[in-house]
Amino acid sequence: MPEQPSSGNHGPDTGNEGMNRRSFLRTSAVLASGLAALAASLAPLRELKDYTSAERFFQKYYKELTPEEMAKILNRIENEVEQQYGVRPHVRDLKPMDGVEFVYAHNLTRCIGCRKCVHACVAENNQSRNPEIQYIRVLRLPHGSLDLEKAEHFYAPSSVPEEGYFYMPVQCQQCKNPPCVKVCPVHATWQETDGITVIDYDWCIGCRYCEAACPYWARRFNFTQPSIPKDKINPDMAYLGNRPRRQGVMEKCHFCIQRTRVGRYPACVEVCPAGARKFGNILDPKSEVSYILRTKRVFIQLKEELGTSPRFFYYFDV
Amino acid sequence: MSSQTKTSLTLAGLVVIFSALAAAFLLNLWGRPAPLYPIPLVDTNFLDTATVRRSYADLARAGEDLSDFDCYACHEKGKPPTLRYDTNQNLIIPKEHSDIVMQHGSHGRNNNCFNCHDENNLTLLQTRDGHEVTFANSQMLCGSCHGPTLRDWQAGAHGRTSGYWTNTFSSAFSNAPEASAHAGTNGYWERSTVPAGREICVNCHNPHSPKFPGRKPAPGPHPLRAVTRLALAEEGSH
């Protein structure tokens, strides 16, 4: 495209018999406005740097990175976040701990359906506020059945719990046999040794195969640039966890990797007012979840028949 | 047509095309669509990690007003208060304690203050078999009737836990910059004033009316275009 205006520029130069002050000015004016319009029309290309940078483009696969390269990448991410949100985050690359396998247990008797976990998760994990990306969906089910066809997302009574209903939050089940990992064509998502299925947001190509493969509707796609108010950024970040995502990548619950891998509880556990959410290390026989799985009526892994073997268990009291 | 006119025409044409393109981009004709619906930010109250109630132990730890627990400011020592009942054997709650709603146990059967309070020393509690329990240790009183719940609570299966999921924190995380990480956060979950441990019964349950209180749910997912979805669902459920 740029050749055309410049070849047009040659016209008056070569056939210059008629060249005078007036035609020169006229041609220059037309040319100048044309170039300005060209520049303006190419303006969207300026946004290209929001999508990729040379460093990110040539970044190696997560599992092949040396510690030095990772340090550089973390620094790059901190710079990018600071530039975009005006907050200097603390980004870490946390590794799984030895002898730890995370398991989640959810008490259906105690859950009151208040959805505090949903919003705690959004705040902790720097999820987009508009469009909304939420990792946890709280389903309201009528007593006496577990028919997901009767589940309701949009309940909005003045007070919960409601008579005749129980509530079942669904989030990533961190399957032992995860279908999402199998379908990923670029190995951008994989299962870590502590049981968390993670996503490398810099390696994801956004094909959404994993979203289609997940039987729990746990994966979320960034169809647009996520929007997070600057004062709502949580600066405690992890590379595989809650660092801000960009348009065109997948994300999902990662058991708050930035918290759990340093020993803290996930945000949803900490905020639950009813104590319905339990989290811990299943390899530790003294942990809460070990006790629950040993002694309580743990009745389901959701969609057990699919053979995904979730690490998320629902149980009842009594 | 002279070459100059031709040139001018070409240039003018190009100017028009590029101006149109520039205008189209400026007006965002096929660019990123603006968000269709403004979604309000969630009320930060829904992010609060505090428990439903505050126990005597919490108040004492925070150094707050404990005058509510100063029984002998009004009562006389060594003289057990008398309880009065109406004709239906319902406890008449004196107006000094009008904030108390007695709904512990069904059918109003648990209508005796001294089922739990010690009539001889109002600053203490007592189990039914006569063991004295302090206010700070009240879970043992609750557990004297609710045994299985106490067992679950002690194992961590009932109730809220704060702190860390691992007990062997120091060895695994000696190099974890927890302190700095905490300092930088917005304080959503930080409970630095509350040490790690289990919340006791009365942090969530009012002992006089222990049913867990209902509350307003946080807003659900924004339905966007599916605004009729809820209406349809409500219709279907009836």
User: Strand order, biggest sheet of chain B?
Assistant: 1-2
N- and C-termini, Cα separation of chain A: 74 Å
Order of helices and strands of chain A: HHHHHEEHEEHEEHEEEHHEHEE
- This entry's quaternary arrangement is heterodimer
- How many DSSP E strands of chain A? 12
**Which shape of chain A, going by the Cα principal axes?**
elongated
The main pleated sheet of chain A reads as: 4 strands, mixed
Description:
The complex is a heterodimer of chains A (318) and B (238). Helix content of chain A is 30%, strand content 15%. Chain A has 318 residues and is of the alpha+beta class. Chain A has two domains: 3-41; 102-316, 2-Layer Sandwich (Alpha-Beta Plaits). The longest helix of chain A has 21 residues, at 21-41. Chain A is elongated and about 100 Å long. The relative contact order of chain A is 0.17. Chain B folds into two domains: 1-34; 44-171 and 178-237, no CATH class. In chain B, 29% of the residues lie in helices and 4% in strands. Chain B has helices at 3-26, 56-62, 139-145, 147-155, 169-172, 178-184, 228-237, and strands spanning 124-126, 132-134, 161-162, 197-198. Chain B has a two-stranded antiparallel sheet with strand order 1-2. Chain B has a two-stranded antiparallel sheet with strand order 3-4. Residues 168-195 of chain B have low confidence and may be disordered. Classes of the chains: A alpha+beta (318), B mainly alpha (238).
